[in-house]
Amino acid sequence: MDTLHKPHVLMISEITVDGKLTLGKGVSSKILMKHMSHEAEILLHETRAEYDAIMVGSSTIRIDNSFLTVRMVEGENPLRVIPNSLADLPLDANVFNTTNARTILAVSKAAPKERVDAFTAKGVDVVVCGEDRVDFPKLMDILYTKYQIKKLIIEGGPTLNWHMLHHDLVDEIRLIHMPFIVGGSDTPSLVGGMQINSENDMIKLELMNTKMYGSNMVTEYRVLY
Ligand SMILES: NC(=O)c1ccc[n+]([C@@H]2O[C@H](COP(=O)([O-])OP(=O)(O)OC[C@H]3O[C@@H](n4cnc5c(N)ncnc54)[C@H](OP(=O)(O)O)[C@@H]3O)[C@@H](O)[C@H]2O)c1
Fold it and tell me: How far apart are CA 98 and CA 154, in angstroms?
């Protein structure tokens, strides 16, 4: 098989002191984001404007109904990419309004044709990659080669973060630290997925930068594979 290509991938997340991404299971992270400093919000939107594309998981679309557009600074909207194996997201979700920004729905071969057709009719680009579930390495290759995506942001949630890290697809991590503790043993944290078996399985990071944006510390890491 030919070597797969991939964009440079930046994982970006707002995160509490106890490593959580939201206030509880099934709760929108928009509540936490309301408490982000203006400076950190600007950083988030500037980063979106700098990158070619942005990807979030299908559960995040269901719970947060995200727009994933550039709003607080001047700049072009990135291409939005939503992995959703069965194309079962609501057609009226904000991210599928393609008037101002393009959207790719990445589905598997198991997605029903009538659902795929309904998304195509809305102006959404549907990319098929994977048998039963979206194949992330293949999706990265398609984004790079077919859509010329050289820089991709992933903005969670934890399940998507896990799949991307598990396949060695993340290059950098940027955390916007929120000075709160929310608790909750099943509250989503930065990375979900499977438990590691030993210390050898820890994903190692190198701290590259720290900076204050208003009341929020922002840390930047390089992922060492
Ligand atoms: N603080 C923050 O920065 C932040 C950012 C984003 C989200 N959040 C929060 O995170 C929560 C949602 O996170 P989540 O972990 O539940 O969901 P998620 O990561 O948003 O979505 C799960 C994704 O993983 C895919 N997936 C699952 N298993 C797979 C497999 N075996 N192979 C390929 N793809 C697979 C799903 O695709 P299918 O559709 O195919 O199942 C889906 O796209 C929400 O509460 C949201 O508010 C916080």
Answer: 19
Q: Which two tokens stand for residue 41?
A: 């919000």
The distance of Cα 27 from the centroid of its chain, to the nearest Å, equals 17
Give the global pTM.
0.97
Q: What is the pLDDT of residue 1?
A: 53
Please report the atom of ligand 1 found closest to the CA of residue 84.
39
Q: What pLDDT band is residue 3 in, cutting at 50, 70 and 90?
A: confident
Please report the atom of ligand 1 found closest to the CA of residue 88. 39
Fold of 8-67+135-224: Dihydrofolate Reductase, subunit A (3.40.430)
Ligand 1 pocket member 7 (CB < 6 A): no
Inform me whether the pLDDT recorded for 38 exceeds 70.
yes
